[in-house]
Design brief:
The complex is a heterodimer. By secondary structure, chain A is α+β, with helices and mostly antiparallel strands. Chain A is built from 17 helices and 14 strands. Chain B is α+β, with helices and mostly antiparallel strands. Chain B is globular. The chains are: A alpha+beta, B alpha+beta.
Chain lengths: ~425, ~70
């Protein structure tokens, strides 16, 4: 059996494979194969895994949480011990019905209708950042625009004071760096916890946990209309969240509300320059905005993958899978599936909205909670750039985030006119 | 494309409050502000093609078509 397995053509565990963005050629090769591609076990924490790169099976895996579990094994591409798994578990690492009960604690804040109420605040944050960038004539687009806007928005919703927003950016940056080739010192942020127990094996997770605890304590005596207060007061099946549940929840929300939209906003600058004609088209026909937003999100595919563990034997894309096997859903590959997206490398603001891209996940219980918020933020950013007549020019090559999980950009020097 | 009307229902145990249904069909679905659980308002009738879209887009796989209704005019 093993001899029949077709191996993945690139080292998908190595961040270097993603150093210039999505490895389009390797993914195209894998999509063209009749079966899933196999990556054999490496050393240490590297279990073997199957790569799912087509759109249809990514949706299939996403939607069947009984067969493809998030709670059994780790949802990232390396293995961790059971105690580490439970220490870091937030709703993203759980299956229904526990997942559903936790998700409902926060989901009302992110429904499309509720998200509309954030529009004025989002618009103001974007205006402030764009006006500052225009005044200075340019700079690092990520630092000036893409990073501060989403963190500002999610921190407002969570209840993190403005004065701490930069600290949150720093912490979440360092969180992702835990899986990079240049991790932090284990004692950073005063960490004393065994790194293997921390998300991304990063001491920055300790920093975020400590921050969440302190802010939670403050909200116990000074409640506010924010998600921190809601989580502190929340009860699931008659019980308050434990300290770990609370800090894990906070960390997930700050990370997910920040790194993802930031990545799309960073890529947007590249799209504006490289596909200027498409944005001219949008300018002349604003009714294309929803499609343009989806295209930015599809093309940037901020989260490259999530992993699932099989709970029983099955067959997926003509590939026999065994209970305990790992499958990795490469959203960034499925979003360029030729069967679904005509000429997938073409950036096209007139692309139909159906079938949807899988940047927010392929559907099912774990579908991105913040999707309506991310869409709103990206739409207002595009609209604000066009209405100001901002003309972006690249003043350097993009420097990608050193990660095989987040398709982020760390640095992108731009000039504006 | 069929213009048949069908009736939709929400399984409140499975609903994760994603709000996609309300965004697509605000006349038929309402997501409760506190509990973030969707429910059907009014008759719950939709043309089959639109119902199929909502069923497919529901992240929680909580929406189903319960019965075909009479054909529309």
């Amino acid at each position: 059996m093993l001899s029949e397995r077709v191996l993945a053509p690139a080292d998908l565990q190595d961040p270097a494979t993603f150093s210039q963005g999505i490895p389009q050629e390797a993914f195209a090769e894998m999509r063209a194969r009749p079966t899933l591609s196999w990556t054999p076990p490496g050393g240490g924490d590297r279990t073997g895994f199957w790569s799912v790169t087509r759109h249809a099976p990514v949706s299939e895996v996403s939607r069947d949480t009984d067969l493809y579990s998030s709670a059994v094994g780790h949802i990232q591409i390396y293995d961790i011990d059971d105690d580490a798994l439970s220490a870091r578990a937030s709703m993203i690492d759980l299956d229904p019905p526990v997942h559903t009960r936790l998700r409902r604690l926060v989901s009302s804040a992110f429904t499309p209708r509720h998200v509309q109420s954030y529009e004025t605040a989002v618009r103001a944050r974007i205006a402030e950042r764009l006006d500052a960038l225009m005044q200075s004539g340019g700079g690092n687009w990520v630092e000036a625009v893409a990073a501060p806007i989403p963190i500002g928005v999610i921190c407002d919703i969570m209840g993190v004071p403005e004065s701490d927003h930069d600290y949150m950016i720093e912490l979440t940056d360092h969180l992702v760096a835990g899986t990079s080739s240049k991790p932090l010192e284990p004692s950073a942020y005063g960490n004393t916890t065994d790194l293997r127990l921390l998300p991304f094996n990063s001491p920055a997770a300790h920093g975020i946990n400590e921050y969440a605890r302190a802010l939670g304590e403050r909200r116990r005596t000074e409640p506010a209309d924010d998600l921190i207060t809601k989580l502190i007061e929340a009860e699931v099946d008659g019980e308050r969240l434990t300290d770990a549940e609370f800090t894990n929840f906070f960390r997930l929300m700050v990370f997910a509300g920040n790194e993802t939209t930031r990545a799309s906003m960073a890529h947007l600058a590249l799209h504006l320059v490289e596909f200027a004609d498409q944005f001219e088209r949008l300018r002349s026909d604003p009714s294309l905005m929803d499609q343009a937003v989806e295209e930015v999100i599809r093309y940037s595919s901020p989260i490259l993958y999530f992993r699932r563990t099989l709970t029983r034997d099955t067959v997926l894309q003509d590939t026999p899978l065994r209970a305990g096997d790992k499958v990795v859903m490469w959203y960034a590959a499925a979003n360029f599936d030729e069967e679904v997206f005509d000429e997938p490398l073409r950036f096209d603001v007139t692309r139909p909205l159906r079938p949807p891209n899988v940047a927010f996940g392929g559907g099912g219980a774990h579908f991105c909670l913040g999707a309506p918020l991310a869409r709103l933020e990206v739409a207002i950013l595009i609209e604000s750039i066009l209405s100001r007549g901002i003309n972006l020019r690249l003043a350097g090559d993009p420097v990608y985030v050193d990660s095989n999980f987040v398709n982020g950009i760390e640095h992108l020097e731009v000039e504006v006119g | 494309m069929s213009a048949d009307l069908v009736r939709v229902a929400v399984d409140s145990e499975r609903c994760i409050g994603g709000g996609q249904c309300e965004m697509l069909e605000p006349e038929v679905f309402l997501v409760d502000d506190d509990e973030a659980i969707s429910s059907v308002i009014g008759s719950g009738e939709l043309p089959r093609d639109r119902a199929d879209v909502v069923v497919h887009r529901c992240p929680g796989a909580a929406i189903s078509i319960v019965q075909p209704q009479r054909p529309s005019e």
